[in-house]
Each structure stands twice: as C-alpha cells, then as structure tokens.
Write a structure and sequence with these properties.
alpha+beta; Alpha-Beta Plaits; 8-stranded mixed sheet; 15 helices; 13 strands; 17% strand; globular; binds flavin-adenine dinucleotide; binds iron/sulfur cluster
Length: 391
C-alpha cells in the first residue's frame, strides 16, 4: 500500500484511488487545498496495486535524463479565431479537431460552475472550446480517469490532455496500452493551490460586484500574445471585461512560488523524458534564435514523443503551420529543472492559516507604494507590540 511520508511525493493525480478495487483510497483535501490519498486500512488487502501505478514512485527509479522525443516543431494554428482563444499557438485545438472529426472524445481542464478547475470530456468541437486557455490552478482528474478508461475500453478514440504527471498517472492507472488513446501534456511550471484560487475568485467577484463564469488569463485581444498576463473576465450578468484595473493579478500569485503544490518543487517531468505522445508548450524564442517563427498571436512548441504522436502531427499538418526546430531552440526552464519554492513558503501558509487570504494578499502580493508603506507601519507596530492582526 502507498505510505506517503512527504507531501512532495504525491502530485495528486488520483491514479491510486481510481485503481483500488476495494474502495480503500479516497482523495482528501489538505490545509493548503491540495488532494492526497487517504487509505482506510480496514478495507485494504495489501495487494500493492496502488503503489505499482503511482507515477511518482515509478519515476524515482527511472533514468530521467533519457530523452524520449522523436521530433520537435514550432507551430501556429491556421484558424485565426481558434488561435486567438488558445494560450499559445493553438497546438491543442489542432489535435482536438482531428480527434473530434474522427468521432472521438477529448478530455481537458475546464472551470466548473463554481470556477473550480476540473477535467471533463467533450465529443463536439464546440464542447472542446472550454478546454482552450490555461487554467492556473490544479485540475481534479478523479472522475475523468474512470470515464477515459471506459471510453478507451469501448474502442472509441480518446485524446486526454493535461499536466505531465496527470498523463503519466492516467497511463499507469490504465495499466494496459491502448492504440485508440492519444495523450498530450503541457510543459508545466507548477500548479497553484485550488484553495488560494478559490479565494482569488471570491475577491474578484467582490471587486467586480458579480459572479465570474470564465477567466482568460492570456487574452490576446488588446496586446496580442505576451509574457504579461492580460485578463478577460466573463460574468454571469453578461459583462466581459478586459484588463480592469479594479481586479487582481493572478499572475503575481502564480509566479510567486508560494502557493504551488509541494511536489512541483521536485517535479520529475521538467525534462525531455516524457510519458505522453505529444508535449506542447509556449515557443517564446526569448534568445531570438528563430525570429522567423514569431507570431503576434502565439507560437506553440510541439514535441512528438512516440510513433503515434508523430503520426498525429503528420495528420494535422494541414491545419497548423509547423517548422522543425532544434533541441536548443526548444529548451526552456521548465524542461530543464523544477520551479524552486520561495524561501517564505512556510511563513506564507502560517500567515494564511492565522489571518486569511486578505492579509496574505496585501502582505505578499500587493506591491503598490501605498501598500508597501502600510505594511512597513504595521510591521513596526507589530514589532513594538501595539498592533495584533485579527484577519
Ligand atoms: C498550470 C500550467 C502551467 C504551464 N506552464 C508552462 C510553462 O512553464 N512553459 C510553457 O511553455 N508552457 C506552459 N504551460 C502550457 C501553455 O500555457 C499552453 O497551455 C500550451 O502551450 C498549449 O498551448 P495551446 O495554444 O495549444 O493551448 P490551449 O488551446 O489554450 O490548450 C489548453 C490545454 O491545456 C490544458 N490545461 C489548461 N489548464 C490546465 C490545468 N490547470 N491542468 C491541466 N491541463 C490544463 C487543457 O486541457 C488543454 O489541453 C502551462 C500550462 C498550464 C495549464
Ligand atoms: S494495497 Fe491494494 S487494496 Fe490496499 S489500498 Fe492499495 S490498491 Fe487498495
Ligand atoms: S502521485 Fe498519484 S498515484 Fe501517487 S500517491 Fe499521489 S495521487 Fe496516488
Ligand atoms: S510541475 Fe510537475 S508535479 Fe507539478 S503539476 Fe506540473 S507536472 Fe505535476
């Protein structure tokens, strides 16, 4: 049976909970908002299956320096409307369109009615629209793994997309290889806490005096494709607001390294050893090696890791403009090393649990000069013992 001694050893994929035929494992949310398996030992027969399918345990004994890719490309979707909705160059849409046209089903991350990020399936192109766009919070794959298993067993073509650990978890949970399953992972910086994301959504709802139904954090309508997050907030009352100065910058929280899942700081997928058929990412070309591949609306990196992945990229070649690139041109930080945690991580969570989101937001993320001044005064008052924060 799985015995988790360190939170860093679990990416929360839910493969173990799904594979246990005795219902001995449930996924339980911890104080940071991340899910971990909890085992009911009275139901466990000690068959060892959960440990055998765990992707993190498996990767601990693998040679992760062994490169798996077969070919590398930079690409851009030809359909401009779909490219505008995509986080980068629209690689996902090209793959999803081909699978849907073949009568298949696509799995990806969406916002549910409460703006939580979860994995769902779609068998129409219209349904796949909700998968477009990066959702910067950990997605829940628990139900999707079972549904995907039933679909592949029925012989239907399936495209399952997600973070590298989610794809590896799915493949191990399925145990057997299926020719009708194609997988696509994204190069992954880290996944932030769903709990903090939920606090952030509540804050935005309050500031916008409404209820969010969607956020596009990489909106291209005003500045095109850019490193800086540009937000489009869609609200239940029909408003669609771009870059409102009243709202809150999730990018600052996302890149803070304070709220990521602990396993991300020891990620075993920030390398060229991939579990998926196809890996996609942003092709930023920050070192200006391929200016010919720049696009104001985004360029994707596409990495074919298996024969099936190579075949798929050949199949979509008429919908996406692709150019071969070198490994040096493809490499980016999250293909080389895990994102390091901020040294204040423990302090941050202590403050969060003691004082709540409003306090940590102001203390760690609101860096206007006025707020910096207020923080300094509070620190002095706290140090001399005349102010005791209650939030
Ligand atoms: C949490 C996260 C971190 C990322 N970090 C990097 C990075 O460091 N470097 C980099 O180059 N690219 C990163 N990406 C990938 C990048 O932003 C694009 O998703 C990718 O280039 C695909 O582009 P596209 O135009 O095909 O995407 P889109 O058409 O926008 O497709 C989005 C795809 O991402 C999946 N997805 C969205 N949100 C999630 C989520 N929360 N969990 C699982 N899957 C999700 C969807 O299921 C879909 O398959 C990250 C994405 C996510 C979600
Ligand atoms: S060892 Fe077997 S029975 Fe026990 S929790 Fe794991 S999968 Fe379930
Ligand atoms: S990484 Fe996945 S399989 Fe391993 S313990 Fe965590 S949830 Fe279970
Ligand atoms: S950084 Fe690694 S461990 Fe974290 S979600 Fe991404 S692939 Fe999984």
């Amino acid at each position: 049976m799985i015995r988790l001694e360190r939170v860093e050893d679990c990416c929360g994929c839910s493969a173990c909970a799904n594979v246990c035929g005795h219902g001995a494992i449930t996924m339980v949310v911890d104080a940071e908002g991340f899910s971990y398996p909890k085992i009911d030992e009275s139901l466990c027969t000690d068959c060892g299956l959960c440990a055998r399918v765990c992707p993190i345990i498996a990767r601990k004994s693998m040679d992760l320096s062994a490169k798996t890719y077969k070919s590398l490309y930079a690409g851009r979707l030809k359909d401009e409307a779909a490219l505008r909705r995509s986080a980068s160059g629209g690689a996902f849409w090209a793959l999803a369109s081909a699978v849907i046209a073949d009568g298949g089903v696509v799995f990806g991350a969406v916002y549910d009615d409460d703006m939580r990020v979860v994995h769902r399936s779609a068998d129409t192109l219209e349904g796949c629209r909700a998968f477009q766009g990066s959702k910067y919070s950990q997605s829940d794959t628990y139900q999707a793994y079972r549904e995907a298993r039933d679909m592949v067993r029925s012989g239907r073509k399936v495209l399952f997309t997600g973070t590298p650990c989610q794809i590896d978890g799915l493949l191990r949970f399925l145990i057997k290889k299926y020719d009708n399953l194609l997988t696509m992972d994204v190069v992954c910086h880290a996944v932030p806490s769903p709990q903090i994301f939920s606090d952030y959504i509540s804050l935005v709802n309050r500031r916008l005096k409404g209820r969010l139904t969607d956020i596009n954090m990489r909106d291209k309508s005003t500045r095109g494709w850019s490193h800086a997050f540009t937000y489009r907030y869609d609200l239940a009352d029909g408003r669609s607001l771009v870059d409102q100065d009243k709202t809150v910058d999730w990018g600052r929280l996302f890149f803070s390294k304070l709220i990521d899942r602990p396993s991300c700081h020891e990620c075993k997928y920030t390398n060229l050893n991939r579990a998926s058929d196809i890996t996609v990412a942003d092709f930023w070309d920050d070192d200006n090696m391929r200016p010919d591949l720049r696009s104001p609306l985004g360029t994707s990196l596409l990495m074919a890791n298996t024969d099936a992945g190579e075949r798929m990229l050949r199949d979509v070649a008429d919908t996406i403009t692709m150019s071969a690139i070198t490994e040096r041109e493809a490499l980016q930080p999250c293909l080389q090393r895990p994102t390091a945690a901020d040294s204040r991580r423990r302090q941050f969570w202590g403050d969060y649990h003691a004082h709540g989101f409003g306090y940590v937001y102001r203390r760690y993320f609101d860096d206007t000069n006025y707020q910096k001044f207020k923080n300094m005064i509070k620190k002095i008052l706290k140090t001399i013992g005349v102010w005791h924060p209650k939030e």
